[in-house]
Amino acid sequence: MNNLDAILLIVIVSLVTILLRFLPFIIFNGKKETPKIITYLGNVLPFSVMAMLVVYCFKDVTFNNFPYGLPELIAGGSVFILHILKKNTLLSIIGGTAIYMILIQFIFI
């Protein structure tokens, strides 16, 4: 791949990304009411995505062998507790990830 191909690829990918980002604002420009299904999906999907992420994160945890899923459970509990206490999603995710990494790198070797 030469430089021209790489530049064209970057331009095309950038234009498609920009189009996809602005498409909802073009379709739902505020002049007419948003369809009820879109409003419903906007209310329901964030919780559904979080539930799927929790299932995905815990799907390969083995409780039969050492460390018996303890790093995952401790990190998941810390995410829950951080979110209840601080009400900050980003802090909860970063804190839980940091705790998990510390547990698997230094404690449950």
Describe it.
This protein is mostly helical. The chain folds into two domains: 32 residues; 74 residues, no CATH class.
* Overall 3D form: extended
- The count of helical stretches stands at 4
Quick check: average pLDDT? 92
Fraction in beta strands: under 5%
- Tell me roughly what share of residues is in helical segments: over 70%
Largest sheet: none
Distance between the first and last residues' Cα: 43 Å
Reading the helices and strands in chain order gives HHHH
Coarse structural class = mainly alpha
Detail the poorly predicted runs. Answer: none
What is the total tally of β strands?
Answer: 0
Radius of gyration: 21 Å
How many structural domains are formed by the residues?
Answer: 2
Question: In brief, what are we looking at here?
Answer:
With 109 residues, this protein is mainly α. The chain has helices at 3-27, 36-58, 70-86, 89-107. The protein contains four helices and no strands.
Keywords, please?
109 residues, mainly alpha, 2 domains, 4 helices, 77% helix, extended
Topology record:
Blueprint: H1 3-27, H2 36-58, H3 70-86, H4 89-107
Helix pairs in contact: 3-4
